[in-house]
Amino acid sequence: MDAARQITRDYCRRIHCRDVGELNRSTLEWRGDFVQLSPGAFRAEGWFARFGAVSLARISLNQTVLTRLHAPGNSVAFLFPGHGSGLAHVLGHRIEPTECVVVGKDACCEAISKRHAVWLAIALDLTKWRSELHWAHDQPISDDKQFTVLSSSAWRSTVEDSTNWIFNAYAGPPMAFAGEDVGTLLSDRLMYEMARIQPSASRVLNGSCTRLRRRMAVERAREYIHGHCSERIRLSDLCRCAHTEARSLEIGFREICGMPPIAYVRAFKLAGVRRALLSAAPPLRTISEIACDHGFWHLGQFSAHYRKQYGERPSATRARACGSLPHLRTSERRLPSQCSSHENSLRGQIADVTSQRFEVQSPINAAAVGSR
User: Fold this and answer.
1) Where are the domains of the chain?
2) Using alpha carbons only, how large is the chain's radius of gyration in Å?
3) Which of residues 178 and 40 earns the better pLDDT score?
4) Which of 42, 136, 216, 277 would bridge 195 by S-S if both were Cys, CB 3.0 to 4.6 A apart?
5) CATH code that applies to domain 211-322
6) CATH class in words for 3-207
């Protein structure tokens, strides 16, 4: 494989974002869509990487955020809150610290994380999985558009430690990752770790089958909000479409979203306005027209809510979009072609770690996976 082709396939990028728009543009093949729900200055830090058949993402968020992530093409993804992360819900279901969500092929996973959340996502190419890991076909990985929650504390900790080790090592001397074989070794190592899962329990997430009426009501209300963003939405409208009382709906929203229903409506509409302001360059519509398009009829209150949510006036956001938008503060290191002797020691550590990836007791076809 030539160097140019290697650069387009394998990468590791660190991000520092101060706006959800920046974060949305930096998610690459994950096609992420983030909506800030809580007011205050936004900050997101993390990594995006791809090594062979494995894609990695680790994102740290300081605000309550609605997150939508798509598994990369022809891949199945594992999504779980990182160590020390705050409360998180996926499709209205609370995800415990020892659990992870398996996102089926071509599915979009929607999650709400409270302040100070850490998300770790790992996507595996299904073609590679089926062709080389013959012994792992009995693992709970599905290519259907469904969501399965697996519980396995020891396995989850091992996978998180492995991915953190890769990101921390990549933050060091860049030449330690020289050569085509490094990406392949890291990919094989991670796929092996993912195949070792032995869940103690599993459950399929399906909004229509959930036993908790409160969570079902919240999901129905959120669907109504997302489909009627340009209209004036009252609490009575949400209760009617959710088939529940106001008190029960408010408890459900506070439990899952961390805020009452009307605050969620306002935050979702403000996010739509901000997205429109940042994407309109040159401006074709006035700020007032964009605000009305998203259901804000009192422009004075809209401006106050916007400034409280994002720390700046709508006109300041428009000025940045019409002027020079700041580039993403990212640092990217590609896999080079040569390695200096000064960094051979770190590369030796990588080889030591990856060389142990097939030391298992169960009878597996290691030759099919290890032959490189």
Assistant:
1) 3-207, 211-322
2) 22
3) 40
4) 136
5) 1.10.10.60
6) mainly beta
